[in-house]
Amino acid sequence: MDFCCHRWTLLAASLACLTLFGSLLTQWPSLMQMSPRPALQVIINTTNTIVLVWYWPFASSPSVEGNVCRERFGIHNCTLVDDQSLFSQADFVIFHNRELIQSQQRLPVHLTRPQEQRWVWLSLESPAHNGNLKPFAGHFNRTMSYRRDADMYVPYGRLVPHDFGTGLTVEDYIPKKSSLACWVVSNYAPNHKRTAVYNTLKTIIPVDVYGGAFNKHLDDQTLLPTISGCYFYLAFENSISRDYITEKFWYNSLVGGAVPVVLGPPREQYEAVAPNDSFIHVDDFSSVEELGEFLRKLAEDKQRYASYFNWRLKYTVKRFADWRERFCRICPKVSSLQTQKVYDDLDAWEWK
Ligand SMILES: *[C@@H]1O[C@H](CO)[C@@H](O)[C@H](O)[C@H]1NC(C)=O
Ligand SMILES: *[C@@H]1O[C@H](CO)[C@@H](O)[C@H](O)[C@H]1NC(C)=O
Ligand SMILES: *[C@@H]1O[C@H](CO)[C@@H](O)[C@H](O)[C@H]1NC(C)=O
Ligand SMILES: *[C@@H]1O[C@H](CO)[C@@H](O)[C@H](O)[C@H]1NC(C)=O
């Protein structure tokens, strides 16, 4: 990162002013309300990479007080801020797509963008749910997505090797089972491919269904205990697109302890992120009937069923649950993000 003494002095001075007057001015009206969030408790060090979150995704508002990247995630030389007045100091500015396409937020195109500043387009949704990206042509320098070819790869989950032996056997990892197959769905649409598969599958084997669509809501406390009692979990994605493998796979199935039956991108894309024997792919079968028969037999074959848990001996699932961690992780990659880049046609990238 380029920096100079100028920048530091100026910033230190302006920060001091802002802290004295700015916090009084901006906090004053809210002082009488419930605990206002103190402004500018962030330690700005301009030798650091400065990552500015222009607004938080889904109106979440985690704290960035102190040196959050270092203190929480052990990432050094990295400052995460969410104060728009720091725009001119930021090396990266992050924009979450949802709020842009819903016109709740706008790109600050009226501001003069520092030469080296990079704008980051962020979405964890599939193309079908990202709206029209044509208006954003030429604005973004980097993409942050679950796509493996994004500049900043932020998968819903990943497997990390255990750093020590657990002394457990595969069987120790298999929860007690009481149901054959389970499916949790909140967004039920008759025209989804997954709905067609479910409708046929339930004529072959029993499928326990949960979720808003079936008036059987599971909350955070009941979700995993319910799924862990199922031999198989239908990890059916809401749309089928490249690398779109969500918490249905990583969390509901793998963490939950049910073997995932996946409907989503092709098998190779799952194999790029998980062992080939950790899941069953709908496309492996020439018909849903064949899939159903396979699942029924597999549940009866203890040894073969257990082989789907082999990965547990080597890996644990790591979920990226915290937006702040995703953003702090930009910093260690800065040197590989040096080159000039502009997404002249973000929409085309999205659909490619
Ligand atoms: C800024 O960070 C650098 C590198 O981590 C460190 O050497 C320097 O002392 C820091 N400066 C301030 C004012 O904290
Ligand atoms: C942080 O930056 C300083 C100064 O640029 C450098 O010496 C140090 O190695 C960096 N630390 C890490 C963990 O990258
Ligand atoms: C699965 O992957 C392992 C190595 O990771 C390989 O040895 C094995 O042949 C693969 N099996 C299939 C069916 O592709
Ligand atoms: C970022 O994108 C803008 C176009 O919106 C471009 O002018 C600028 O040179 C790009 N910067 C980098 C560092 O790629």
UniProtKB/TrEMBL annotation:
Subcellular location: Golgi apparatus, Golgi stack membrane; Membrane
EC number: 2.4.1.-
Residue ranges of every copy of the Fucosyltransferase N-terminal domain listed in the record: 48-157
Pathway(s) where this gene product acts: Protein modification; protein glycosylation
Keywords: Glycoprotein, Glycosyltransferase, Golgi apparatus, Membrane, Signal-anchor, Transferase, Transmembrane, Transmembrane helix
Domain Fucosyltransferase C-terminal: 175-349
Source species, domain of life: Eukaryota
Membrane topology: Single-pass type II membrane protein; Single-pass membrane protein
Protein name: Fucosyltransferase
Organism field: Clupea harengus
